[in-house]
Amino acid sequence: MRADRTSERKGLRLVRRRPRAVREVERSDAEWKDQLNVDQYRVLRRKTTERPFTGVYVHPGRAGLYRCPGCGAPLFSADAQFDSGTGWPSFSDIVPESIELHRDLRAGIPRTETVCRRCGGHLGHLFRDGPGPDRSRYCINSCALTLDEDDSDASGLGPRS
Ligand SMILES: [Zn+2]
C-alpha cells in the first residue's frame, strides 16, 4: 500500500491509523451507548451509513453551527451546506481543525473517511466533486450532526430521539 499520499488540500492531513489514538474526549463503548441514540451510535461509533434521504438535515436552509453529537465539537457552519442531491447533508468546508481524514478501504475502493478530531466519531466521507474552488464535498450522515442554532431555544443541542 502506498503511504506517500499524506497531505490533502486545505491543510487537512491524511492521518495514519495509530495503535491507540488518544482523544480529547474518550468514553467506553458502554458510555457511548448510553449517551447516543441508536442511530448516532451506529454511525459515530460503528462507522455505518444512514440510508439516504432519511436524515433531518439532508437539505440546507438552516442557520447555525453543526456540532458533533458525541462531544459537542463544532464541525460545519450551516453556511457551508449545499444541496448535493445525494440524500446526505453536504458541506463545502469545515470548521478549521475540527476533522481528521483517514484512508478507508472498507468499501473495496479507496475513500477518505472524515472523523471528529475531538472524539474520533465517524462522520462520513470527503469527495472531490463539490461546487467550491477546491471541489470538496463533505458527505456527512445527518444523525452524526446536531444543529446549534444561533438564536433560538436549545432544542437542537440534545440528542434527538
Ligand atoms: Zn466528536
Task: Please give the structural blueprint.
Elements: H1 29-35, H2 38-46, E1 65-67, E2 74-77, E3 81-82, E4 90-91, E5 99-104, E6 111-116, E7 122-127, E8 137-140, E9 146-148
Task: Summarize the entry for a quick read.
This protein has 161 residues and is mainly beta. It has helices at residues 29-35, 38-46, and strands at residues 65-67, 74-77, 81-82, 90-91, 99-104, 111-116, 122-127, 137-140, 146-148. 10% of the residues lie in helices and 22% in strands.
Provide key terms for this protein.
three-stranded antiparallel β-sheet; 9 strands; disordered N terminus; single chain; Metal Binding Protein, Guanine Nucleotide Exchange Factor, Chain A; disordered C terminus; six-stranded antiparallel β-sheet; globular; binds zinc ion; 161 residues; mainly beta
Unreliable runs, pLDDT <50, ≥5 residues? 1-8, 151-161
Mean pLDDT: 87
Gyration radius (Cα, Å) is 15 Å
- CATH top-level class: Mainly Beta
Q: Order of helices and strands, N to C?
A: HHEEEEEEEEE
Please tally the helical runs, counting DSSP H or I stretches of 4 or more residues: 2
Helix content estimate: under 10%
Bulk shape: globular
Bound molecules: zinc ion
Name of the CATH homologous superfamily: Peptide methionine sulfoxide reductase
DSSP, total strands? 9
How do the strands line up in the largest sheet? 3-4-8-7-6-5
What is the CA–CA distance across the termini?
A: 42 Å
| Structural domains: how many | 1
Strand content: 15-25%
**Can you summarize the main beta sheet?**
6 strands, antiparallel
CATH topology: Metal Binding Protein, Guanine Nucleotide Exchange Factor, Chain A
The assigned CATH architecture is Beta Complex
SSE class = mainly beta
